[in-house]
């Protein structure tokens, strides 16, 4: 029995990947619209801070994993004292805080945008003077899909920018005029075996991933560099499970270069294409890794186009499900809202 913290679409797809392998899943999530509940063998509805509920959950499962990286530290601490938690909580500690994460990546010898810690209006002013404008102000914790970020432009009032991120501890990051954004989905098991899927190219709108395509429009050297970087990160974290590394690709003269943007210690939106477009999906790969199995093949099955269905995009579901060659995945969420990921579609061209 695999315990999963979080009941969203990522947990749902993990459950669906576990079932053909003869494995069952138990979802732990607070009350709400939790699409993973529909497909799981068991569920616990309780706050992440409920010590007694966490203990009961731990006794009911053989291993615990999670679908999102902002698991409260106390939750991970309680569970890891009772049952194996994979990836290990140290991976969460490293990736939950942007300052710690960026420092960790830089210390591995991998390139990242320049960054400076910011904890007051005065330190923000000094950081902007050093990095210049434009630059990007990001909260150290709890930022995703563009939340907790402000671009510091020439006209930006710094006091307003500081207030705009809730006056929370932050970093100021160098603005990178990149050519494209790419990511690598990687998996590592307890034996230290690592597999990396082909690099995918990502396009965003309003800070939300809208489309992923493969192969990415990068050189073979850049592709291998991204895969090698992901392997080094996984080894340094002693990671078990699937994770993603996001990169900016820039060009200097005729030469491409990579900068690591961030690490996602979980299955990732840019890897949804693997369900239909790879021999082993990222979700099955994660289940294999945390269950102590050998990893599966990451062979890509063709050219890939994956598009997120956001908000009202799912209103046209009846047309999507009749389109030849289109693989439709709807997450079963009860309500569509602007900016909410409701599903995705994938096309694989042989």
Describe this structure as you would to a colleague:
The strands form 3 sheets. Strands 10, 11, 12, 13, 14, 15, 16, 17 and 18 form a 9-stranded antiparallel β-sheet that branches. Strands 3-2-1-4-5 form a 5-stranded parallel β-sheet, sandwiched between helices. It is globular and about 55 Å long. The longest helix has 17 residues, at 220-236. The chain has 11 helices and 18 strands. It folds into 3 domains: 2-85, Rossmann fold, CATH 3.40.50; 114-174, Dna Ligase, domain 1, CATH 3.30.1490.20; 180-349, 2-Layer Sandwich (D-amino Acid Aminotransferase, Chain A, domain 1). The protein has helices spanning 9-18, 51-60, 73-80, 89-95, 98-107, 121-131, 158-164, 220-236, 274-277, 282-290, 317-320, and strands at residues 2-5, 25-29, 42-45, 63-66, 84-85, 115-118, 135-139, 149-152, 170-174, 180-188, 194-196, 200-205, 208-214, 241-252, 255-264, 303-310, 326-330, 341-349.
Label this structure with key terms.
350 residues, alpha+beta, Rossmann fold, Dna Ligase, domain 1, D-amino Acid Aminotransferase, Chain A, domain 1, 3 domains, nine-stranded antiparallel beta sheet, five-stranded parallel beta sheet, 11 helices, 28% helix, globular
SSE inventory with pairings:
Blueprint: E1 2-5, H1 9-18, E2 25-29, E3 42-45, H2 51-60, E4 63-66, H3 73-80, E5 84-85, H4 89-95, H5 98-107, E6 115-118, H6 121-131, E7 135-139, E8 149-152, H7 158-164, E9 170-174, E10 180-188, E11 194-196, E12 200-205, E13 208-214, H8 220-236, E14 241-252, E15 255-264, H9 274-277, H10 282-290, E16 303-310, H11 317-320, E17 326-330, E18 341-349
Parallel strand pairs: 1-2, 1-4, 2-3, 4-5
Antiparallel strand pairs: 6-9, 7-8, 7-9, 10-11, 10-12, 10-14, 12-13, 13-16, 14-15, 16-18, 17-18
